[in-house]
């Protein structure tokens, strides 16, 4: 522990111009070590803390107070870091453009509100399995971060339609959206995205059980630039909805429709015939007819069709 602190203190003292730092699986790294880095390397622009289980709130507070030029921050598997620390980042790091949070169980809505209000230049936000983040935090992002282009909120059970409404109303430049596994989201939320984010090119709504054909109809009408869409494990979508999507999104290049029980061979045929730019379909082999195979000139595996 003493050796680790002395090493980081030396880096903080001797590497004043350090801009990019990754701390991965440093089990002995403590708040004191991170404080030494933050106060000594105030010109940091990129910081990743991955699996450093002894890092808590105090260490990250010093990052927020000292590293005002920070543009990208990644906190992965940091169970001890809480809202107050990330709130300090929101207050101090006005130039933050990218934030990645994975399995940070003590980070919730208060922190996201501070990020939204303080980091208005945010362009990329990726959150996965942060179960305390809900609608309130994402609403703050939607209302304040007008330049957001890339949003991924995966398996966050408290995020629902209210969050997507704010994103649709406030983030018209959004290009990439991944909301897989956010089980509260329904057709209403997807409708807000379709009507407010016309530049969307990538969408992953896999494992959402409450979206259906209405969502695909809205996407077909509102998001004509869509190129990649993931619909796997969406049990309510049918061939009808898929036809709406195909009609409006003729630029589609990839489409994942694995384990969608109401998508049939007819729907797959519609997809292939209606999208001339299609390069890949992920689908069960049993849903690809012999006629569709011939039309696509495809190579088929058990779950996917690769178009060449």
UniProtKB/TrEMBL annotation:
Gene3D superfamilies: Ribonuclease Inhibitor. It comes from Opuntia streptacantha. SMART domains: LRR_CC (SM00367). Residues 91-233 form the F-box/LRR-repeat protein 15-like leucin rich repeat domain. Pfam families: DUF7885, LRR_6. It comes from the Eukaryota. This is F-box/LRR-repeat protein 15-like leucin rich repeat domain-containing protein. One of its GO terms (biological process) is SCF-dependent proteasomal ubiquitin-dependent protein catabolic process. GO terms for cellular component: SCF ubiquitin ligase complex.
